[in-house]
Automatic annotation (TrEMBL):
Coiled coil: none annotated. It comes from Paenibacillus agricola. Keywords: Heme, Iron, Metal-binding, Monooxygenase, Oxidoreductase. InterPro entries: Cyt_P450, Cyt_P450_CS, Cyt_P450_E_grp-I, Cyt_P450_sf, Cytochrome_P450_Monoox. This is Cytochrome P450. Belongs to the cytochrome P450 family. PANTHER family: BIFUNCTIONAL ALBAFLAVENONE MONOOXYGENASE_TERPENE SYNTHASE, CYTOCHROME P450 FAMILY 4. It holds the Pfam family p450. The keyword Hydrolase does not apply. It comes from the Bacteria.
Length: 441
């Protein structure tokens, strides 16, 4: 018996339903079969993947059969051929030379930077102050990524750069699921905004690269310093354009995802008083001014559970796309070349057969680890050769930012409007999140 089922709707209705509300669409198919055919064209069939077994086959077992396809084509217009968009051998080469940036000893140094920047942010807050939490988290994580990855202080330009990042993300997201990709050179209003945002980011990046070549010492322990020192088998260094691509990748993938995650967590804490009380109870028993940042990070056990639960309900990577380059057999089912597979952690993380009360924010469900669930029932950082290279960094950063700010403040919403998820390149709150900060204790 086939594990592939076919959706009972026309291709036009399927397309319109997905365009109107992608999250609702993929969630509505969760119990319709392990692999759901979207009745797309025979030459380029598309499927929604609902089974952790099929997810594992695609991301790990048969990884060599797939490329990212359309998602890489769209993102490469902004970030070029970087770690997020390169394929196969080139991707592995890039991952190998970038991996040392995320070694344990490097992350320990980054943790001190995170603590310092989070403390500076908290010190600027005042009791009762109203702020856009989404915007402020974006600026904070941008500052962190610039200092840790680029050894650069962007304090005076962070608003401009955060806006440019936002513009590139919004324009890319609007293109990702359109029937065809309009070339970026076509002077539409959207493309003009996108190209201007890219120029803004590139100007900063090339200024930093030029300064690093002229004054290399301050950059030695950063990603940029590593890129400058890397040589290929022929002894050739990495071209400036490739450095630009990797730095652009870190700007888009390295801070926007964490900023959105933190925003979802501040919202979730305010909506779940019992969880928030346990969070502050953990912080009240800790002195974050003594010991190393990493020592404190390892002690924040309940805060870590909060983050894991937020990653379950609001995974920044809400969708993963794969395209088969040639015919592939998955668990006894055969799929033709150019088949597209849509994998949604957002939907799969809400499977009621795996997670009891899946829509409830309950960090305690992670207290005993994730081994009790099927592999790839929970996979916020993807899996296989393309799993998130910075997952340990992201967990450390989110934990310490929450702890340092939460030690002094709690946040409350200032309106009663509905909070709606917006599935762009990563999952954020539509329209942002405005809250008031109140002194804790």
């Amino acid at each position: 018996m086939s594990r592939v089922t076919e959706i009972d709707s026309s291709r036009l209705k399927i397309f319109l339903a997905f365009q109107n509300d992608p999250l609702q669409f993929v969630s509505s198919l969760l119990y319709d079969g392990d692999m759901v055919s979207l009745r797309s064209s025979r030459k380029r069939p598309a499927y929604v993947v609902n089974s952790p077994e099929f997810v594992q086959e695609i991301l790990v077992g048969k990884d060599d059969f797939f490329i990212k396809g359309r998602s890489s084509s769209v993102l490469s217009r902004t970030i070029g051929d970087g770690l997020l968009t390169s394929e196969h051998e080139k991707h592995q080469q890039q991952r190998n030379y970038m991996q040392p940036v995320f070694y344990k000893e490097r992350i320990q140094a980054y943790a001190e930077t995170v603590i310092g920047e989070a403390r500076a942010f908290a010190d600027r807050l005042t009791d009762g102050q109203t702020l856009s939490v989404s915007d402020e988290m974006m600026k904070l994580t941008l500052t962190v990524i610039a200092q840790t990855m680029f050894a650069t202080n962007l304090e005076e330009r962070k608003s401009e750069l955060a806006a440019a990042v936002n513009d590139t993300i919004e324009r890319s997201a609007r293109t990702l699921f359109l029937p065809f990709i309009l070339p970026l050179g076509v002077p539409t209003p959207g493309n003009l905004v996108h190209r201007r945002a890219i120029r803004t980011l590139e100007t900063m990046i090339y200024e930093v690269i030029d300064d690093a070549f002229n004054h290399p010492e301050p950059y030695r322990l950063s990603l940029l310093g590593l890129l400058m020192d890397t040589k290929d088998a022929q002894g050739q260094g990495i071209p400036s354009d490739e450095m630009r691509n990797q730095m652009m990748t870190m700007l888009l993938a390295g801070h926007e995802t964490t900023a959105n995650l933190l925003t979802w967590i501040w919202f979730s804490l305010a909506e779940n008083p019992e969880v928030e009380a346990k969070f502050h109870q953990e912080l009240d028993h800790m002195d974050l001014t003594t010991g190393s940042a990493m020592e404190n990070y390892r002690k924040l056990s309940y805060t870590s559970l909060i983050i894991q639960e937020a990653l379950r309900l609001y995974p920044p990577a809400w969708v993963i796309l794969r395209e088969s380059e040639r015919e592939v057999s998955l668990l006894g089912e055969t799929f033709p070349p150019q088949s597209t597979f849509l994998i949604s952690p957002y939907a799969l993380h809400r499977n009621k057969h795996v997670f009891k009360d899946p829509d409830v924010f309950r960090p305690e469900r992670f207290a005993d680890g994730i081994s009790k669930w099927p592999r790839f029932a929970y996979f916020p950082f993807g899996g296989g050769s393309r799993s998130c290279i910075g997952s340990n960094f992201a967990m450390m950063e989110a934990t310490l930012i929450l702890a340092v700010i939460g030690k002094q403040f709690r946040f409350r919403r200032v309106d009663t409007s509905s909070v709606v998820p917006e599935p762009l390149i990563s999952l954020r709150i539509k329209g942002g999140l405005t809250m008031a900060a109140y002194k804790h204790g």
